[in-house]
Each structure stands twice: as structure tokens, then as C-alpha cells.
Write a structure and sequence with these properties.
Number of strands: 23
Order of helices and strands: HEEEEEEEHHEEEEEEEEEEEEEEEEH
Shape: rod-shaped
CATH superfamily of the largest domain: RNA polymerase II/Efflux pump adaptor protein, barrel-sandwich hybrid domain
CATH class of the largest domain: Mainly Beta
Low-confidence stretches: 329-342
Radius of gyration: 43 Å
Number of helices: 4
CATH topology of the largest domain: OB fold (Dihydrolipoamide Acetyltransferase, E2P)
Distance between the termini: 108 Å
Mean pLDDT: 84
């Protein structure tokens, strides 16, 4: 009985061993290979959007706000207290230098009497029957009773009304030459270092002129530098308007540019673009220059117009990566809307 039991036990152990061997071989041959062999991992594919490098003209601006000013004429004050006898102009009227805009009466003196006295004294002087001093005295009395335009220009305000009493030095009218307006702007000193006379100034949406004056002094009160520019005729602007301005301090023509979203700065402060070639993209170091309207000037080795760079997905992009471009037609569409090189 013992021998029989030993034989049966041996057969069972042998069968178990054969079963384990068979299972191991099957797993190795059909179940994925040897567990000791490292498995190759599939390289991740990053879905991105791209755009093409282009050549454009970019500008550097100093931005600010300026006030439209009238360099001549301006508010005209009453030379004496009195009552308005006559108003000879209205708002918007074109007048000549020397035109009488408003006539005054003051106490017993009236404009008409004072004017008649001037005419009489001049006639007497021509006949050598009076002195030059008498003529000048009569003219002084007349000057105290009239508001005369000092320039040829446009009446932009004339609040005087016939019969109204006015005080000495009260503003009676305002005349400006709308073809001789200027704009003045206070630019922060930190931004004014590049300002020079002759630089292009863009005022609002449509007016273009040039810098005519840059102060050499900094205003101690607010740390700004006064800058002026003369306006071209017929701008439609009016004295006192406060308008945005751009002063162009640098122009780079035909420079290589990339979408601003494609230029990334790493933790070390270095800038790069992810240059896309086929199904792969790699970090390419760049140096940046001017930026304008969503485009950034770049220089870098082996970069040229038409190269594709990653825009959406550029931030945190690895040094080398497999990519899938999600915007096959976007580059062509963006290119057609770009600013051409000049």
C-alpha cells in the first residue's frame, strides 16, 4: 500500500509541474512575452494649432493723450465795463483780423460817438489842424468800447447779447484759426527718451502729423515731458478736445514675425517657438524685437518665412514632441489677413 501511495503522489506532483510549465510557456508565447522584458510605451501625441511665420513692417509707439489747442486768438475779454450795444458776428462765422465783433457803450461814452471822434481827428490831422496825440487819445477811447478779432479765423463762441451788462475782463468772444491748431501731450519721462522732432504722430483714427517740439525739461509736479505737434488743416478737431495719440518712435521693415501666442518664455527666461515639421515639433530659441497687433518680431537660427510654429498648445511644450495639427486651413486664412511687409 505504501508503494502504491508513493507512486500516486509522484504522478500528481509530476502532473502539477507539467501544468505549471505549460501555463508559463503559454503566457510567454501568447500572453504578452516575458515579464522581465520592458514594454515599449507609445509616445504621446499633442493636439496643437499652428500658424506661419511672416514678414511685416512693425512699429514701436509711445501712447498718450493730448489736448487740442489754438496757438493764436483765443478768448477775447472786454477792455472795460459797459453794456453790449451791438454784436457783429455769430458762432461759426469766419472773420478777418481787425474785424469789430462787439460794440460797447460805457457810461456817457458810446461806441458810435467814439468812432466818430476817431474819424474826425484823423481828418483834422490830414489837414494839419490837430495833433497826433489827439488822434491817439481818440483811438484809445474807441478801443475801450470794442472787441476786435486779433486774427483771421473762426468765431467758436460769442456769448455777448445786446443790452447785457459786462464787467471789465469778462470773456466776450473766442476766435481761433482752425487751420493753425496744435496738440500738446504730457508724456511720462520714462517713455519720452526716444521722442524726437519729426516723428510721426497719429491722432485719433485719421489725423497724421509730426512732432514739432519735445521739451528738454521734466515737469517736477508729475514727472512728464511736454510734447507738441501742429495739426494739418481741416482735421475737424476743436480746441479743448482731449484725444488719444500715438507717436511712432521706431519702424522695422520686412522683419520676420511670429504670432505673439507662439513665443513662449521658459522658467529660465529664455524664449522659444515650437517649430512644427510634419508630425513633430521642437523648441527653437528666438530673440524678440518689436511687437504690434498680435505679432512679435523674432530672430533665430534656421527660421524663415512660411515656417509653421505652434500657437495653441505652445505653452509648456516639451523639447521634442509628436503633434497632431487641428487647424489645417487656419494658417492660410490667417496669412491672407496679415499686414504685408513694406
Amino acid at each position: 500500500m505504501k508503494l502504491k501511495s508513493l507512486v500516486i503522489g509522484g504522478v500528481m506532483v509530476l502532473c502539477a509541474g507539467l501544468a505549471i510549465f505549460a501555463l508559463t510557456k503559454w503566457h510567454r508565447d501568447f500572453g504578452g512575452g516575458d515579464d522581465d522584458q520592458p514594454q515599449e510605451k507609445a509616445e504621446p501625441v499633442i493636439t496643437v494649432q499652428t500658424d506661419a511665420l511672416k514678414r511685416m513692417t512693425l512699429h514701436q509707439y509711445v501712447n498718450g493723450y493730448g489736448t487740442i489747442e489754438a496757438p493764436a486768438g483765443g478768448p477775447l475779454a472786454s477792455p472795460s465795463a459797459g453794456v453790449v450795444a451791438k454784436v457783429n458776428a455769430i458762432d461759426g462765422q469766419e472773420v478777418k483780423e481787425g474785424d469789430v465783433l462787439v460794440e460797447l457803450n460805457s457810461g456817457m461814452a458810446t461806441y458810435q460817438f467814439a468812432k466818430a471822434q476817431v474819424d474826425r481827428q484823423k481828418k483834422l490831422l490830414a489837414d494839419q489842424n490837430t495833433s497826433l496825440k489827439n488822434v491817439q487819445d481818440a483811438e484809445s477811447q474807441l478801443a475801450a468800447l470794442q472787441i476786435v478779432s486779433p486774427i483771421s479765423g473762426t468765431v467758436i463762441r460769442i456769448p455777448a447779447k445786446v443790452g447785457a451788462a459786462v464787467d471789465a475782463n469778462a470773456v466776450i468772444a473766442e476766435v481761433v484759426d482752425l487751420n493753425r491748431l496744435s496738440i500738446s501731450a504730457q508724456i511720462p519721462a520714462a517713455e519720452a527718451g526716444d521722442l524726437k522732432t519729426g516723428q510721426e504722430v497719429r491722432i485719433g483714427d485719421s489725423v497724421i502729423t509730426s512732432v514739432s517740439f519735445v521739451s528738454s525739461a521734466v515737469d517736477a509736479a508729475d514727472g512728464t515731458v511736454l510734447t507738441r505737434a501742429l495739426l494739418p488743416p481741416n482735421t475737424g478737431l476743436r480746441p479743448g478736445e482731449f484725444v488719444p495719440i500715438k507717436i511712432i518712435t521706431a519702424i522695422h521693415t520686412n522683419c520676420l514675425v511670429a504670432p505673439a501666442a507662439s513665443v513662449v518664455t521658459d522658467e529660465g527666461g529664455k524664449r522659444f517657438v515650437a517649430l512644427a515639421k510634419g508630425e513633430e515639433a521642437a523648441q527653437t530659441p528666438v530673440t524678440i524685437g518689436l511687437g504690434e497687433n498680435g505679432w512679435t518680431e523674432i530672430t533665430g537660427a534656421d527660421l524663415k518665412e512660411g515656417d509653421l510654429v505652434v500657437t495653441v498648445g505652445a505653452y509648456g511644450f516639451p523639447d521634442q514632441a509628436k503633434i497632431r495639427v487641428a487647424n489645417a486651413a487656419a494658417s492660410e486664412s490667417t496669412s491672407s489677413n496679415s499686414v504685408p511687409a513694406q
